[in-house]
Amino acid sequence: MKKTLAALCLATALVVPGMAYARPVTITAQMNNYGGNRAYLAIYLVNANGAYDHTLYVAGSRTRYYRHLTGWLRASRGRPNISGITGASVGSGRTLKVTVDIADSLINAGYQVRVDAAAEGFRESPNEVTVPLDTRSSGRAQRGRGYIGSFKINL
Fold this sequence. Notes:
5-stranded mixed beta sheet, globular, 8 strands
């Protein structure tokens, strides 16, 4: 009986911290009506020093167009890990809504969510939107500089 109880305690001690490690964060981007081809978006995190941390999501699956997401590529040194975090590009006037897991330790720690945007036939928009990854910014819409009319994160 003591061995079973000890094993249960050990398993609980290992599992419970992992459950509190990350939380789902919903990211919503409402695109402006710019009247052109679908936009590619790179949504990524930078740390308190402004250095690239990791990519959260990429809207647009054709890698040949990633070169137009210049801020993201430069920050990630041209080697972003995007395995399993890509989806369709986003059309003019449409909404992108994705949920990603972000470690609790990054929230309220000076990190920022950045978005680069580009659409064929239009100019590139590196650093289209920057939002602090903190509880004060949660749910507050921010305007983009060109393609994105409204962007928000919900923690």
